[in-house]
Write a structure and sequence with these properties.
It catalyses: Ca(2+)(in) + ATP + H2O = Ca(2+)(out) + ADP + phosphate + H(+). The chain is α/β, with parallel strands linked by helices. The chain has 40 helices and 26 strands.
């Protein structure tokens, strides 16, 4: 038995709420087809299984927003074909190259076609051929990367000029970096979707039959009302449904990317990239267009998205310069020249072919389909009983008109009248099915998710995976990064320790000896992925790079560094890009024919451990003795206590003769990292974000534990955690509450499981440590949300229940592995996502309570009336109107309730908690019992109560039934207010702020008035007196105090369903025994 199963059996499964309950051991293979609790990796056979189990009467509504398994399979086949196409072309080119080397082979080269655009020295077709065929010989014919850059009028260092005319010309000559998107669906296509509802089709057939028979027996002037009214009601339902599903159709987003234009680094939309652009690339970036490597250091690319093979390919400007759009930078950094864009690339062709949005089922959708199926079965059964009873009563002569006339007498009633009577009975039965089958349940999920997604975008959260919205509401813990998420990511060097002393102020050049200064400037300018651009007309230098890089570059500029001239003084011969595992990065610089400088920069205590000496104030290299080492360690601790990020800068000279001269050996050369000479330790200030402490406290109150997982020094992490409120006091700052990543990773799996719950801060953690923590927490039963921004965070983001990538600092790899992108990198936005997640679940529960109340009341009223007197008080048209209120308008009103602070004072909702809670059952049964009692009394004793005994029997019957219909509708209208707050007495709190809710309530009331006053012929109603209108409203209003009193009745904590499931289990176990 695995650790996970054992912990679940021991009652630690927090997904199931705080109570200890027994659930199937295997999430993916539970007892029922609707037991899908995690769709991140749900197998296809599970998804097929619940579709086959669902009662599908309205497929367009039920499955419109779920994954189309057939289309998904076709999409994968198409991707495979395009990949094969790309591989065949490359194989052919390789074969040609191999043939050239055979004796007697005739060498040939691809003809160079003349440029189609005189502005450029090469045509679009040639560039596409070079990119797609990866033919080095053709590239060399064009002068290599440098020659090609000149032909497309670009500079390898400064890029294109970037003026508007130049951009337009390039787009005309080589195309734009866009691909055709699928056109948005028209309103009529949504109408057609809604028309394909099985129940509505049956009703239309019944309406047609009723229309034909009515016109035949009563003439066209009077006979079309019955059939025409049903047809009109069906059309209204179809139009409303079409309107609703059209407003929830998806939207698109785009990425921003860094380019070099006119020597300046600037961010533009990925769609604005043109041929000739020079792009800086770093680990985690996605290649946005086809191109060639201009320069690169340890540059490796993951081409699996195009080739299907998860093989990392090394790239360099000479032997392997070709970059394919859509691939990821796996390691290193460099620059590229764009040669093909848009549909001229394999990736663009792929995206154009599969640019159709596919839905995705969420666990809640699947469970609601289960609920809808169960209720639908009950509704079908009830409708069948009603049909049999009414038909039996009709053909045995027990059904009478209001005036007492028997409707059917064997041998006397005309065939047409008999068929007409049967059609009316059949229509009522079908309409009961329409009301009983709650197709609005899955629609309500879609509505609330679509509404939440749009609102979350305004709250700086972009949802990539629909189910993440609802899963976030179940989150029990958030593992957050420190830098940029809990802090502002606005870094400044505020403290420097060099030459064995503190440099105060840190940018005072005169306090640094000349040798230390020149080495520091050299290391800062060369050992970086950032850059400094000085505008020609003067002005402040423009810095680019990560916040840490920019802080150190700004310090260098303040010291008097001339970035460009320093970079020209030496040549980078090899680089070790910053690595989150090793926490450092380095470069080897050739400063003369015989001398090489190796510069390192990284986590202070890690780089310091590699140092054996330092440079003193007299510019002498002095051994780093114990006393000096302790003083530097003390300086690091002091900086960390002040919440500063500590970075050490060191170097060592190296003999140029010892550097590998062969390119292949140089690629695999390990930069020397021992016997370093310490140059400086810098303390970088990154203040906490305003409001982050309140956000952490809000999470704590909501039962969500916030944990900080950072690569920073443990002391720095501790100081920030105390400032943010993650640690309440210094006494909490002891192991295992705070722990180093290296200690956590050395523990056994069972030890990690034991302490995972206690960890609040993890310092000096690697991405793998974060992954181990996420795995341990999930095995403890937590629903885990994780923030991440680096490429190496991808496994943890994927493993977590909800992966939250950072929109500003996050790499493309991190974003692709995430479920939600936090656009402003702010922890407060993460908390807002939790609020919206809880709101999704709460809104669905509100709608379920409202809908089931209507279902139960309508079914019981019609069944009891049909069985006892042979007539139903609510006819087909009236039930269709109630269905419209219940399914479509009800879903729209209740699914768009905004989140409240009350939601953040509850414990997280377990994803396996019953959808219908005991509180909901109480509210539902009270309201349904009240409605059924009042309306059945009106049905049987209405004429006496209303003093209609002396009226014409037919008129009295119509008045009574109209009052029942009117009162029933107003009961639903007022009960919608009760459904807003299932567990609060004050149901009106914040109601005026929800304009959509108030608008829908107003619309329902106005339409009801119109039906009673002006559409009597269609709805079989009569105009009511003002007194009966007041009676209808009063009967509806009573539901308010009734709901308030009902909420004072206590309910057991244990779900009602468990009493039955445990009893069934006991019976099964006794049978097995």
């Amino acid at each position: 038995m695995t650790e996970e199963i054992r912990y679940k059996k021991d009652g630690f499964d927090l997904e199931a709420g705080s109570s200890r309950r027994d659930y199937p051991e295997d999430d993916d293979d539970g007892d029922g087809p609707f037991d899908i609790f995690r769709t991140k990796s749900a197998p296809v056979h599970r998804l097929r299984r619940w579709r086959q189990a669902a009662l599908v009467l309205n497929a367009s509504r039920r499955f419109r927003y779920t994954l189309d398994l057939k289309k998904e399979q076709e999409r994968r086949q198409l991707i495979a074909k395009i990949r094969t196409h790309a591989q065949v072309i490359r194989a052919a080119v390789l074969f040609q190259e191999a043939v050239k080397g055979l004796p007697g082979a005739v060498t040939s080269t691809l003809p160079l076609t003349p440029a189609q655009n005189s502005d450029f020295g090469i045509s679009s077709e040639e560039l596409v051929a070079i990119s797609k065929e990866h033919d080095l010989s053709v590239l060399q014919q064009n002068g290599g990367v440098k020659g090609l850059a000149e032909k497309v009028k670009s500079n390898q260092e400064n890029g294109i000029s970037g003026d508007e005319t130049d951009i337009i010309n390039r787009k005309k000559a080589f195309g734009s970096n866009t691909y055709p998107r699928k056109k948005g669906r028209s309103f009529w296509s949504f109408v057609w979707d809604a028309c394909r509802d099985t129940t509505l089709i049956i009703l239309m057939v019944a309406a047609t039959a009723s229309l034909v028979l009515g016109i035949k027996t009563e003439g066209i002037k009077e006979g079309w009302y019955d059939g025409g009214s049903i047809a009109l009601a069906v059309i209204i339902v179809i139009v409303f449904t079409a309107c609703l599903i059209s407003i929830t159709d998806g939207s698109h987003s785009y990425e921003m990317i860094l380019v070099i234009r006119g020597g300046r680094r600037t961010k533009i939309s990925i769609f604005e990239i043109v041929v000739g652009d020079v792009l800086p690339l770093k680990i985690g970036d996605q290649v946005p267009a086809d191109g060639l490597v201009i320069s690169g250091h340890s540059l490796s690319v993951d081409e699996s998205s195009m080739t299907g093979e998860s093989k990392i390919v090394h790239k360099d400007p000479v032997r392997s310069p070709f970059l394919m759009s859509g691939c990821k930078i796996a390691d290193g950094y460099g620059t590229m020249l764009v040669t093909s864009v848009g549909i001229n690339t394999e990736w663009g062709l792929l995206m154009a072919s599969i640019s159709e949005d596919n839905g995705e089922e969420t666990p809640l959708q699947v469970r609601l389909n289960g609920v809808a199926t169960f209720i639908g079965m009950v509704g079908l059964g009830v409708a069948l009983v009603v049909l049999i009873v009414l038909v039996a009563r009709f053909f045995t002569g027990h059904t009478k008109d209001p005036d007492g006339t028997v409707q059917f007498t064997a041998g006397k009633t005309k065939v047409g009248d008999a068929i007409d009577g049967f059609v009316k009975i059949f229509t009522v039965a079908v309409t009961i099915v329409v009301v009983a089958v709650p197709e609005g349940l899955p629609l309500a999920v879609t509505l609330t998710l679509a509404y939440s997604m749009r609102k979350m975008m305004a709250d700086k959260a972009l949802v990539r995976r629909l189910s993440a919205c609802e899963t976030m509401g179940s989150a029990t813990t958030i593992c957050s990064d420190k830098t940029g998420t809990l802090t502002l990511n606005e870094m400044t060097v505020v403290e420097v320790s060099a030459c064995g002393k503190k440099i105060d102020p840190p940018d005072n050049k005169s306090l640094l000896p000349s040798k230390v200064f020149s080495l520091l400037i050299e290391g800062i300018a060369q050992n970086t992925t950032g850059s400094v651009f000085v505008p020609e007309g003067g002005g402040a230098p423009e810095l680019s790079g990560s916040p840490t890089e920019k802080a150190i570059l700004q310090w260098g500029v303040n010291l008097g560094m001339d970035f460009l001239s320093v970079r020209l003084d030496s040549v980078i011969i090899h680089a070790f890009p910053f690595n989150s595992e090793k926490k450092r990065g380095g470069v080897a610089l050739k400063v003369s024919d015989s001398e090489v400088h190796v510069h390192w920069k990284g986590a202070a205590e890690i780089v310091l451990a590699c140092c054996t000496s330092y440079i003193d104030t007299d510019d002498h290299v002095v051994p780093l003795d114990e006393e000096k080492l302790s003083s530097y360690k003390k300086a690091i601790e002091d900086m960390a206590v002040e919440s500063l990020r500590c970075v050490a800068i060191a170097y060592r000279p190296y003999d140029a003769k010892s550097v590998p001269s062969v390119a292949a050996e140089l690629e695999n050369w390990q930069l020397p990292e021992s016997d370093l000479i310490l140059l400086a330790i810098v303390g970088i200030k990154d203040p906490c974000r305003p409001g982050v402490k309140d956000a952490v406290q809000l999470c704590t109150n909501a039962g969500v534990k916030v944990r900080m997982v950072t690569g920073d020094n443990l002391q720095t992490a501790k100081a920030i955690a105390l400032e943010c409120g993650i640690l309440s006091s210094g006494t909490d700052a002891t192991e295992p509450n705070i722990i180093e990543g290296k200690i956590f990773r050395t523990l056994t799996e069972s030890q990690r499981l034991d302490i995972a719950d206690k960890i609040s801060v993890m310092g000096r953690s690697s991405p793998n440590d974060k992954l181990l923590l996420v795995q341990a927490l999930r095995k403890r039963g937590h629903v885990v949300a994780v923030t991440g921004d680096g490429t190496n965070d991808a496994p943890a983001l994927h493993e977590a229940d909800i992966g939250l990538a950072m929109g500003i600092q996050g790499t493309e790899v991190a974003k692709e592995s995430s479920d939600i992108i936090i656009l402003d990198d702010n922890f407060s936005s993460v908390v807002k996502v939790v609020r919206w997640g809880r709101s999704v679940y709460a809104n669905i529960q509100k709608f379920i309570q409202f809908q089931l109340t209507v279902n139960v009341a309508a079914l019981i009223i019609n069944v009891v009336a049909a069985v006892s007197v042979g007539n139903v008080p609510l006819n087909a048209v009236q039930l269709l109107w109630v269905n419209l209120i219940m399914d479509t308008l009800g879903a729209l009103a209740l699914a768009t309730e905004p989140p409240t602070d009350h939601l953040m004072r509850r414990a997280p909702v377990g994803r396996r908690e019953p959808l219908i809670t005991n509180i909901m059952w109480r509210n539902l049964l009270i309201q349904a019992s009240y409605q059924v009692t009042v309306l059945l009394i009106l049905n049987f004793r209405g004429r006496d109560i209303l003093n209609l005994q002396n009226d014409d029997k037919d008129h009295a019957f119509r008045v009574n039934n109209t009052l029942i219909f009117n009162a029933f509708v107003f009961c639903q209208v007022f009960n919608e207010f009760n459904a807003r707050k299932p567990d609060e007495v004050n149901v009106f709190k914040g109601v005026t702020k929800n304009r959509l809710f108030m608008g829908i309530i107003g619309l329902e009331v106005v339409l009801q008035v119109i039906i009673i006053f002006f559409l009597g012929k269609f709805a079989t109603t009569v105009r009511l007196s003002w007194k009966l209108w007041l009676v209808s409203i009063a009967l509806g209003i009573i539901s308010w105090p009734l709901a308030a009193i009902g909420k004072l009745i206590p309910v057991p904590e244990k779900p009602i369903a468990e009493f039955f499931t445990k009893k069934i289990r006991r019976e099964r176990n006794s049978d097995d025994g």
